[in-house]
Structure formats: structure tokens, C-alpha cells
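Need residues for this backbone.
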């Protein structure tokens, strides 16, 4: 009973508190899934049912999580294959790393007076990046890199679409040909070089160029798989006793191609122009070899435009030819285009040559983009590099003082010749004038090569003396003169392990190449987009080629000394390239 001093509602509050305490205990039991009424008398079937329901809920939750992860993985690694006719263009910028793009972009902006936001066509189609290691080294070579693209599998440095167990792997080009697509290869190097070779031949080591040549024209385990080839390397197709031939045998592969496999052949710029200018339709199969070895660097080729076609010209001609050839077909075409000599400029550490190579590659890339936009047939462009070459750095500390934050594109702009071309001229001059004094040779080098070729008017006596005393090192010495003045750095004359960029037009499934992927993922996408059976080609190859033998130049199998392959792998392809160029220079001297 409340009295006068008891606060109003005190009794009610006390009763409420007691009730609240009772409810709180009941609520606590309920939260634990129990109640006072059932806690003591709940039967074991009830407890079993609750345990089973809990376990089912746990499994269902885990299943949902696994399904979500699987769906996310599938979205990233697979796609609905396109139906119907389609074209695929795959571009390789051999040796081009991310720094090459920075170098070339700034060079173009400087030489053309452009704003900093005016970028390359490549920049506008940046897609992702690729890891490049091979099965035998953290630093890949072009052969293992191209095998990753053509076969979608890792292999050792030097392998031309062969696996570490000495068995062949089918390529996307071979599978495309078997599925009814037209196929093509366009390069600026020797057409038997590693990248094109990996799409249409199978040999243990990349230096087996004679064997590669005969396989490319059709004398291989699968017969002819290419419909169009444009590039250099004519000497690989001519007998060693023929002028311009560099084979180790007397096989005339050009005649073999025409007589045995139905190839049409053109060997110079004037013949190419008949098709480039649209005067004639390109008959397939077409073999166009426009240089004895490599087509000259773009920097030099521009001064010999009447002798050699450019990469973009060859690419446009190939696109038009393959489109015409497939206009009435249910299948489209597969075309591989390589900016081959970006790599060579990197090996030579020549920044003036490299920026012109990348610019020409960018023009070819734009030509493909324009083609796809105008074509009535759906298509996709994928482009990447096999590796970076030279360890290029777009900056260089040239003395012990605090480094300057700059580099000089004007130095590269002043160059009208590559270091390779000036070295060839010096070699030829020394051969013709063997008795000339060092001082006379230094004057020739400065007045006839350095000033007109590089636009360098401050060559030091030490630089000229080094060139006159060591003409066999002229290419490297000339390149150093350019690099040091432009403040461009290099870490190697070989390859590096840096990741490389991927570019694309976009299209069905191209999202799988977003982000950072393996180079083999690029190869797997190519086959998936075309819906071709590379595994079936691999099976056929293995039935026709034994595991430790290769196809010889006469179409018969010849033994391969696999025990010596490790030593063969260390043979640097750039050294072999320089030896070939030295032989060519000596012949032309």
C-alpha cells in the first residue's frame, strides 16, 4: 500500500520490474532455442531434427558460396562462343614493353606539336597485361613466347611449337585452316623467324630456319596450312649456290612452293604495288618475300620506300585479300601481324629506330581497327608482346650529379638513319679501304655518318676513335651516342622479364583478357574465339611425328640430337641475326 511519501506509480513500477525479470529469463531461453516448458521434457527426436536442420543450413550456405566463386571464375575464364562467320586478327609487337609506349607517345607529341592528351591508337585500346616467363626461364625468348600464343602452352626457350617433352603442339592457325578459315602471316622480319614459325611449323629449335621454310610452304606433317605470307627472309627460300641464297642445302623452296603447293610468288616492291594499289586481286595462296633477310628498320625504310613495303601497307593488303577470299564462305579468316623489328631496335639499344618501329606498328594497329569497323563480318583484334627487349628506361643519369628529370626527344627526331644502317655503311667502307689511317677513318665517320645520319655535331674524339678502332662494334657504339644524348637508358642487349601490355578492339569474350593474365591465356582465347579444335591437331601431329625426331627438308624424318639441346638453347638469336647481316653486308660490299 502506498503512503504519502511513496512516489506516484512506485508499486506499479516495482511489479513491472519483477515481471520484467521473469520475462527476461524466458526471452533468454527462447534466444537459445529453448523454453522452460520444453527444456526438461524435450524429446531426442526433436533435438535430432534441429541438428539436421542446422547441418542442412550450413551445407546450403557453403554450396551457395562455392557456386558464387565458380560462377565468378567462369565469367573471368570462359565466354559464350560467338556463332556464325567471324574474323580474328592477332598482332604481336615483338620486344615492346610499357616503356616503349611512353617513349613513343612523348616522341610523337614532340615531333608533331601535340597536346599531352593526344595519345597513340594503342593507348585508346589498352586492355590488360601479360606475364611472359617460359617453362625453362623467367626471361622468355620469342620462340617460347610465340608458342604460348599459338599453342596456348608453356615451353622452353627456342621451341617452335614443341613442348618440353619433345612432342609437337597444334597451333591455332593450323586448327583454323582445318576448320575452313583462311590464314595469313605478315611480318617485317625473316618469315622463318620465331614468331611466324610458331604458327605454321614444328621444330626443336628456332635456328632450324631451313626446315621451317619448307614446312611453311606446305612440306610438313599437315601439308599447307597458310594462305598468305608477307615479310622478309627470301634467302631462306633460295639454294645456297644461288645469288641471294643462304640455305645450307640446294633446295629451291620458292620453286617447291609454286610447283608442289600452288603458291603464287612476288619478290619485290613493284610486284607488291600491283596488289597494294588495287590494280589486281590477290590470288591465294600468296607468298611475298620482299627482303633477303629482314625488311629494314622503318627509319631506314622510309628512305627506301620504292624498294620495301611497310608493315601497315602489307597489313592492309593482307586484310583486303583475306576478306575477298572469304566473302562467299561461311568461315572468315585468321591473320597474325607482327611488328617484328621493335625487338631488334631493343637488342641494339637504338631508341631512334625503336620509336619509328612502334609508330609504324601503331599505324598498322589503326588499320586493323578501321577494317573491323568497316567490315560487315564480325571480328576481334587482340594485340600483345611476347616479351620486352633491352630493359628500356625513359630516363638516364649521365653523371654523378643529382639526376635531371627529363629526356630529349629532339635527339631522336634529328636521326635520319638507324645505328644498324650506319654500321653497315662503315663495314662496307672499311672493307673497300683497308689501308686508311685511323684519322682518315675518323673523319669519314664524323662527316659522312654521324653528322648526316644522326644530326650529331659534337661527337667527341673518344667516340670517333672507338668507332674507328672497333668497327665490328659500330652498331652498339652508334646507338650509345644517340641514347646518351637523349638520356635514354638500357639495362641489357637481351630480353627482360617485365610484364607486357595487351590491347584489344573488344568483342565476345575479350573480357577474359582483362587484368593481369598468363601469355598462355591469350593463346587459349584465340582458339576459343574461333571455336577450333587445337587438341585434335595436336593428336594428328603426334601421330605423324615421333617424339624425338623432326621433319627434314626433303619431307623425310631426320634425327635430332636432343642431348645437345640445352647448349643449343643458349645460342642468342640476336648474335645469329648480326652474323647473317654481316654476311649480307660482305656480299654487297
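Answer:
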Amino acid at each position: 500500500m502506498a503512503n504519502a511519501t511513496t512516489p506516484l506509480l512506485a508499486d506499479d513500477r516495482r511489479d513491472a520490474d519483477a515481471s520484467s525479470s521473469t520475462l527476461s529469463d524466458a526471452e533468454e531461453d527462447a534466444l537459445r532455442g529453448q523454453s522452460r516448458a520444453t527444456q526438461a521434457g524435450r524429446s531426442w527426436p526433436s533435438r535430432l531434427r534441429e541438428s539436421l536442420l542446422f547441418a542442412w543450413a550450413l551445407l546450403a550456405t557453403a554450396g551457395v558460396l562455392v557456386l558464387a566463386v565458380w560462377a565468378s571464375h567462369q565469367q573471368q575464364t570462359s565466354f559464350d562462343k560467338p556463332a556464325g562467320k567471324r574474323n580474328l586478327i592477332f598482332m604481336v609487337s615483338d620486344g615492346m614493353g610499357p616503356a616503349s609506349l611512353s617513349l613513343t607517345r612523348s616522341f610523337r607529341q614532340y615531333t608533331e606539336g601535340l597536346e599531352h592528351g593526344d595519345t597513340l591508337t594503342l593507348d585508346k585500346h589498352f586492355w590488360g597485361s601479360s606475364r611472359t616467363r617460359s617453362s625453362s626461364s623467367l626471361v622468355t625468348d620469342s620462340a617460347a613466347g610465340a608458342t604460348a600464343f599459338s599453342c596456348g602452352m608453356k615451353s622452353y626457350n627456342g621451341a617452335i611449337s614443341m613442348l618440353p617433352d619433345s612432342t609437337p603442339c597444334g597451333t591455332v592457325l593450323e586448327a583454323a585452316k582445318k576448320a575452313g578459315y583462311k590464314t595469313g602471316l605478315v611480318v617485317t622480319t625473316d618469315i622463318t623467324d620465331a614468331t611466324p614459325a610458331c604458327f605454321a611449323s614444328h621444330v626443336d629449335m628456332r635456328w632450324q630456319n631451313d626446315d621451317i621454310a619448307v614446312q611453311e610452304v606446305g612440306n610438313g606433317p599437315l601439308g599447307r596450312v597458310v594462305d598468305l605470307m608477307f615479310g622478309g627472309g627470301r634467302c631462306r627460300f633460295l639454294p645456297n649456290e644461288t645469288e641471294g641464297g643462304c640455305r645450307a642445302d640446294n633446295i629451291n623452296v620458292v620453286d617447291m612452293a609454286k610447283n608442289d603447293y600452288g603458291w603464287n610468288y612476288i619478290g619485290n616492291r613493284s610486284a607488291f604495288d600491283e596488289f597494294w594499289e588495287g590494280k589486281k586481286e590477290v590470288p591465294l595462296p600468296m607468298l611475298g618475300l620482299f627482303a633477303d633477310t629482314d625488311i629494314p628498320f622503318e627509319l631506314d625504310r622510309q628512305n627506301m620506300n620504292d624498294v620495301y613495303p611497310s608493315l601497315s601497307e602489307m597489313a592492309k593488303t593482307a586484310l583486303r585479300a583475306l576478306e575477298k577470299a572469304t566473302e562467299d564462305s561461311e568461315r572468315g579468316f585468321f591473320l597474325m601481324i607482327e611488328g617484328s623489328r621493335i625487338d631488334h631496335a631493343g637488342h641494339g639499344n637504338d631508341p631512334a629506330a625503336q620509336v619509328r618501329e612502334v609508330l609504324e606498328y601503331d599505324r598498322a594497329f589503326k588499320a586493323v581497327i578501321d577494317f573491323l569497323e568497316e567490315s560487315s563480318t564480325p571480328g576481334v583484334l587482340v594485340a600483345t608482346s611476347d616479351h620486352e627487349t633491352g630493359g628500356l628506361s625513359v630516363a638516364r643519369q649521365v653523371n654523378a650529379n643529382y639526376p635531371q628529370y627529363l629526356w630529349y626527344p629532339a635527339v631522336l627526331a634529328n636521326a635520319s638513319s638507324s645505328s644498324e644502317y650506319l654500321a653497315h655503311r662503315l663495314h662496307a667502307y672499311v672493307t673497300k679501304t683497308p689501308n686508311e689511317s685511323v684519322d682518315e677513318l675518323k673523319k669519314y665517320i664524323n662527316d659522312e655518318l654521324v653528322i648526316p645520319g644522326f644530326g650529331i655535331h659534337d661527337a667527341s674524339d673518344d667516340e670517333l676513335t672507338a668507332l674507328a678502332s672497333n668497327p665490328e662494334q659500330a652498331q652498339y657504339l652508334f646507338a650509345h651516342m644517340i641514347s646518351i644524348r637523349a638520356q635514354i637508358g638500357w639495362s641489357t642487349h637481351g630480353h627482360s622479364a617485365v610484364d607486357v601490355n595487351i590491347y584489344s578492339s573488344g568483342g565476345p569474350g575479350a573480357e577474359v583478357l582483362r587484368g593481369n593474365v598468363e601469355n598462355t591465356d591469350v593463346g587459349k582465347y584465340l582458339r576459343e574465339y574461333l571455336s577450333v579444335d587445337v587438341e585434335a591437331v595436336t593428336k594428328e601431329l603426334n601421330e605423324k611425328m615421333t617424339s624425338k625426331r623432326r621433319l627434314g627438308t626433303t619431307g623425310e624424318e631426320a634425327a635430332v640430337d636432343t642431348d645437345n639441346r640445352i647448349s643449343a638453347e643458349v645460342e642468342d638469336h640476336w648474335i645469329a641475326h648480326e652474323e647473317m647481316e654481316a654476311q649480307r653486308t660482305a656480299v654487297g660490299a
